[in-house]
Design brief:
The structure holds 2 protein chains of 2 kinds. By secondary structure, chain A is mostly helical. Chain A has helices at about 1-15, 25-35, 40-55, 60-75, 85-105, 115-135. Chain A contains 6 helices and no strands. In chain A, helix 1 (about 1-15) packs antiparallel against helix 2 and helix 2 (about 25-35) crosses helix 5. Chain B is α+β, with helices and mostly antiparallel strands. Chain B is built from 3 helices and 13 strands. In chain B, the strands form 2 sheets. In chain B, strands 1-13-4-5-6-3-2 form a 7-stranded antiparallel β-sheet. Chain B has a 6-stranded antiparallel β-barrel with strand order 7-8-9-12-11-10. Chain B starts with a helix and ends with a strand. Classes of the chains: A mainly alpha, B alpha+beta. The interface of A and B includes residues 13, 53, 60, 61 and 76 of A.
């Protein structure tokens, strides 16, 4: 989680400096789809706080949005569908679209259709990157070797 | 799915409440001081990232521009080659048109039946692109303006060979004209570009710079065509005749078009 938090902070800096794609949102959706953990909520809150602070938006806005996104993604994981690339794309796309409409309503941010398409498409590779990371490189405390 | 929503609900509600408090706190500006303090740290980082991104994008832009410039350069090179080719063709046509005009001013096509021909090769003999199919016949005379070039030696259906006035086998009766009078002789071709006006009587006046003309004794060569210019007079007291070296007045290789005098 700590490494992921560092990445989220780095993405927050990138998107506040020059990147027009909301990478924090993409990776939060991906992680919430990969695993249903408490840490997703912490990451959503921290990531939202960082994005709000760095993009000069009300500090509470992005934490609230990301908390809901994380919660919806975690719930979508339990839908009676297999989590294939198409399903990930649909879930990601719907949430990206929702966030865009909320941002339009609350912050008055213009809806950029290419950003929505790109962010939706990025959800799929982000899902597999996070999944590979969590399965291969993160030590699970509950798995212990019996000697 | 509802059960999934209930997972970690307590934590969610706590973080939700904190977020709402932050929202309200930021609205009433009580977080302005810690925000400004923290910005002292984050703004330089953001600025650094921004500058780096501009630098990287400029590098990419340079590569793209270089590629575009290379493509444009290639296209312009092709266009230039095409324009140069067109220009060369136009110059050639202009030179030909100028030759026609000059020819009309000197030898009238009402008096002479002139057939234009292009030189296509030059070794000992000059080859032209007109032959028997165009009515060219052996011994017809080739001229440019009022200069004698040579006569047709061999005729093929599509091309012909001209023996030049400077050819060693060429012999033409000629005279030179100066202010003090005429000097008659026989113009002989020599090896090289120069010719020799031979059999000039001692008493006949000739000097360097005089123009040499055709006498017209040969049936096919009209009288008065320019054959060359005297470059040196060779005179020996004990010889019966004197001689003069004659040089051509122009370079055959520079001609774009010549004219054959027909019947």
């Amino acid at each position: 989680m700590k490494t992921f938090l560092l990445f989220i902070m780095f993405f927050a800096f990138l998107q506040s400096a020059f990147l027009e794609v909301n990478l924090v949102l993409v990776f939060l959706i991906a992680r919430s789809l990969v695993m249903d953990e408490r840490s997703n909520l912490y990451l959503a809150f921290a990531g939202g706080l960082a994005v709000s602070f760095l993009t000069q938006v009300n500090l509470g806005y992005w934490p609230l949005v990301f908390l809901f996104v994380s919660k919806i993604s975690s719930a979508a994981k339990h839908l009676p569908f297999s989590l294939g690339p198409l399903m990930i794309l649909i879930i990601g796309g719907v949430q990206v679209l929702l966030v865009s409409f909320i941002s339009l309503a609350v912050l008055g941010l213009k809806i950029e259709i290419w950003h929505i398409i790109l962010e939706s498409l990025l959800t799929v590779p982000a899902f597999y990157i996070v999944k590979a990371w969590e399965e291969r490189f993160v030590v699970k405390r509950e798995i212990k070797l019996k000697i | 799915m509802l059960a999934a929503l209930k997972n970690n609900l307590k934590l969610f509600l706590i973080l939700f409440t904190v977020s709402v408090l932050l929202l309200l706190g930021d609205l009433i500006k009580i977080l302005a001081l810690p925000k400004s303090l923290l910005q002292q740290v984050t703004i330089p980082i953001q600025y650094g990232l921004y500058r780096s991104s501009i630098g990287i994008s400029r590098q990419f832009e340079f590569v793209i521009n270089a590629r575009k410039a290379s493509q444009e350069n290639k296209a312009l090179g092709e266009q230039l080659a095409q324009v140069l080719s067109e220009n060369a063709n136009l110059r050639k046509k202009l030179a030909e048109a100028q030759s026609f005009l000059d020819q009309e001013k000197t030898l009238s096509d009402q008096v002479f039946n002139l057939t234009p021909a292009r030189p296509i090769g030059f070794s000992r003999y000059l080859q032209i692109d007109k032959g028997g199919d165009e009515g060219i016949k052996q011994n017809q005379v080739a001229v440019f303006k009022d200069n004698y070039i040579g006569r047709i030696l061999e005729v093929e259906p599509k091309k012909s060979k001209i023996i030049l006035v400077s050819d060693p086998d060429s012999r033409i009766s000629a005279f030179s004209q100066s202010d003090s009078g005429r000097a008659k002789g026989v113009l002989l071709g020599q090896f090289g570009s120069e010719m020799l006006l031979d059999k000039i009587l001692h008493e006949e006046p000739i000097k360097e710079g005089d123009l040499v003309y055709s006498e017209g004794q040969e049936s096919e060569i009209p009288r008065g065509l320019i054959l060359g210019q005297v470059s040196q007079v060779i005179e020996k007291d004990n010889d019966i005749f004197k001689q003069a070296k004659v040089k051509p007045v122009f370079d055959i290789g520079d001609l774009e078009v010549i004219f054959i005098i027909g019947e």
